[in-house]
Amino acid sequence: MAKSKKQFAIIGLGRFGSSVAKFLSEMGYEVLAIDSDPESVQDLANIVTHAVSADSTDEEAMKALGIRNFDVVVVAIGENIQASILTTLILKDLGVHKIIVKAQNELHGKVLNKIGADKVVFPERDMGLRVAHHLISPNIMEHIELSSDFSIVEMKAPSAMWGKDLRNLDIRAKYQCNVLAVKRNGEMNISFPADEKLLVNDVLVIVGRNEQLTRMEQAYAEP
Ligand code: ATP
């Protein structure tokens, strides 16, 4: 029998929460959207499966909504750090399987980890980092932090690489970074031949230590 699709609850329908809720709904998932502000709820009423106005720091209200039965609950309350922490504690107490929480800053994130959030996300910080990487090296199209030490970057092949192959570029020896794949004409090749020449619009997907990636980005930076 086909496994039924995951069910999600999103608490806090600011820009972040509502975009998570909308995307999941568009992908065909069942979404319960919760916000204490009836206007925010109204905005999503016709998009998600259920949209309700409730205060997530009210344990009884969360119980009544059957929050425990959702596979994943996303807490996207930003400014009110106290409400975000209380909500996470309540969800934890109610036995929610997986809790993902948006943190406002590092300290908020630390508290959330301590009280048992399964994943803490920092959308503003991460987007700031991406923009900064792109400013240092406009060839960097994407930057994904895997941990505090390692990242994956998508880099448009800089002109210094055109006509050269991966063997000659020797990125592994020079920067201790690994080219995982090369994207050409929209197609991802995960076993790109080491002796094939790179072309103008190729995009390299590279994994490495953050400081080594930055060193490589700077070495290949072009105006
Ligand atoms: P974003 O950056 O995603 O727009 P934000 O980080 O500025 O959001 P807020 O606007 O402070 O975050 O909060 C997001 C939403 O969470 C708001 O719509 C707010 O009404 C809702 N919210 C705040 N506290 C609670 C609560 N206790 N219960 C339910 N919803 C809440």
Describe the secondary-structure layout:
Layout: E1 7-11, H1 15-26, E2 30-35, H2 38-44, E3 50-53, H3 59-64, E4 72-75, H4 81-94, E5 98-102, H5 106-114, E6 119-121, H6 123-136, E7 140-145, E8 150-156, H7 166-169, H8 171-175, E9 178-184, E10 187-189, E11 203-209, H9 210-219
Parallel strand pairs: 1-2, 1-4, 2-3, 4-5, 5-6
Antiparallel strand pairs: 7-8, 8-11, 9-10, 9-11
The structure holds adenosine-5'-triphosphate (ATP).
Residues 11-17, 34-37, 40, 55-57, 76-80, 83 line the site of adenosine-5'-triphosphate.
**Share of β-strand residues:** 25-35%
In CATH terms, what is the architecture of the largest domain? Answer: 3-Layer(aba) Sandwich
Total separate domains:
2
Secondary structure class reads alpha/beta
Q: Kindly identify the CATH topology of the largest domain.
A: Rossmann fold
- Major β-sheet profile: 6 strands, parallel
Overall mean pLDDT: 93
Gyration radius from CA atoms, angstroms: 22 Å
Helical fraction equals 25-40%
Description of the molecule:
GO terms for molecular function: monoatomic cation transmembrane transporter activity. This is TrkA family potassium uptake protein. It comes from Cohnella thailandensis. With 223 residues, this protein is of the alpha/beta class. It folds into two domains: 128 residues, NAD(P)-binding Rossmann-like Domain (Rossmann fold); 81 residues, Alpha-Beta Plaits, CATH 3.30.70. Helix content is 36%, strand content 26%. The protein is built from nine helices and eleven strands. It has a six-stranded parallel beta sheet with strand order 3-2-1-4-5-6, sandwiched between helices. The protein has a five-stranded antiparallel beta sheet with strand order 7-8-11-9-10. Helix 1 links the parallel strand 1 and strand 2. The mean pLDDT is 93. Adenosine-5'-triphosphate binds next to helix 1 and strand 2.
